[in-house]
Amino acid sequence: MAQPISTEDIMSIAKLSRLGIDESQCQGHAESLSKILSMMDILSEVNTDDIKPLTNVHDGVQVLRPDVVDLNGLSVNREQNQAIAPAVQDGLYLVPQVID
């Protein structure tokens, strides 16, 4: 059986994921997550030796189209669009970094 999750674990996870969890809610979340992990322990005991992995629950196949630019009769002026962009370098639009 998985080790039960403590309220300290919940607070640490909340801090890492930048979630605002009140300390009064920690005990309930810890109990819920411990129950979920114990259910996963039960599932791990199931014998799946002769079971093929499921790749798609539907019999349908994804129809792919050719990767062709279709502007429906519109023309795109790259220079004009980049002239009004906040930041451009080497023909590419520059955007702020979102990952530290």
Topology of helices and strands:
Layout: H1 7-16, H2 23-44, H3 78-83, E1 88-89, E2 92-93
Antiparallel strand pairs: 1-2
Helix pairs in contact: 1-2
Task: Based on the model shown, name its key terms.
mainly alpha; 3 helices; two-stranded antiparallel sheet; flat; 100 residues
Q: How is this structure best described in words?
A:
- By secondary structure, this protein is mainly alpha-helical.
- Helices cover about 40% and strands about 5% of the residues.
- Helix 1 packs across helix 2 (about 25-45).
- About 0% of the residues are buried.
Compact overview of the structure:
The protein is mainly α and 100 residues long. The protein has helices spanning 7-16, 23-44, 78-83; strands at residues 88-89, 92-93. The two termini are 37 Å apart.
Shape: flat
Order of helices and strands: HHHEE
Average pLDDT figure: 87
Low-confidence segments, ≥5 residues, pLDDT <50? none
- How much helix is in the residues? 25-40%
Topology, number of strands: 2
N- to C-terminal separation? 37 Å
Count of helix runs? 3
Q: Taking strands numbered 1, 2, ... along the chain, how are they ordered across the largest sheet? A: 1-2
Query: What percentage of the residues does DSSP assign to strands (E)?
Result: under 5%
Structural class: mainly alpha
For the biggest sheet, the summary is: 2 strands, antiparallel
Radius of gyration: 25 Å
